TrEMBL record:
Superkingdom: Bacteria
PANTHER family for the chain: AMINOALKYLPHOSPHONATE N-ACETYLTRANSFERASE-RELATED-RELATED
Protein name: GNAT family N-acetyltransferase
Pfam families membership: Acetyltransf_1
Length: 196
């Protein structure tokens, strides 16, 4: 068994709040999820389209299960982390437009991510920003690799993963192909190519 890696002290805390002006001029706060976000996240779910829900959950979902939502907004310290992009208002009042989550494996040094940037905010760099924040948290918490399962027709997510240096492994699932994407955090970081 590989020895557990000592958590690295990050230069900036992954749990910080960052104010971002998006290309469409909207301002968002990129910050850790807060228990008071539960209502806005549940309400915002109703505004998502079927395709983004399918891509996020890999199957149709009509509403968020209350127990799942409770876990989502109350990450267990050291075991899971969730970051949101929200309106610049206190949690509970702010609409939440994007959320990314990382859950550490119970018995290892890997972790699984999930992300959704709603179509209201997509294409403005938040997917990359939130994924980078998950990677920062993973590195700071001694995680060696992060992974996710992505539908093979999910071109935006696969492109984002490629950009970040994830490797891919083909998987199959009932009703459609899945690709497992894995980022080894011991590997050298990939440089971002300039925007076309
Ligand atoms: C995939 C997703 C997270 C991307 O978020 P986003 O905020 O739109 O992404 P960004 O603006 O940060 O784009 C980062 C990179 O992703 C890729 N990308 C994003 N949208 C793309 C699109 N429509 N087509 C192709 N590539 C795309 C590009 O490489 C882009 O880099 P570039 O802008 O330098 O070209 C978002 O579309 C989403 O949440 N989709 C639905 C849920 C989902 O698929 N979740 C993943 C399963 S866990």
């Amino acid at each position: 068994m590989k020895p557990l890696r000592q958590p690295r002290r990050p230069s900036r805390r992954p749990e910080r709040t960052e104010v971002r002006r998006l290309p469409d001029r909207r301002e968002v706060w990129v910050r850790p999820v807060h228990p008071a976000d539960a209502g806005p996240i549940a309400g915002g779910f109703a505004l998502l389209n079927e395709e983004e829900v399918r891509r996020r959950y890999l199957h149709p979902v009509k509403s968020l299960d209350p127990a799942y939502l409770r876990r989502l907004v109350n990450p267990e310290p050291g075991r899971s982390f969730a970051v949101v992009a929200a309106e610049p208002l206190p949690p509970g009042q702010a609409l939440v437009g994007a959320l990314a989550r990382l859950s550490r494996d119970p018995d290892g040094d890997g972790a699984e991510f999930a992300i959704l940037v709603s179509h209201f905010l997509a294409g403005q760099g938040l997917g990359r920003l939130l994924m980078d924040r998950l990677v920062e948290w993973a590195r700071a918490n001694g995680i060696r690799s992060i992974r996710g399962d992505v539908l093979e027709d999910n071109v935006p997510m696969l492109a984002l993963c490629r950009l970040m240096g994830f490797r891919t492994e083909r998987k199959t699932a009932p009703g459609g192909g899945l690709v497992r994407v894995v980022l080894d955090l011991d590997a050298p970081r990939k440089r971002r190519m300039p925007r076309r």
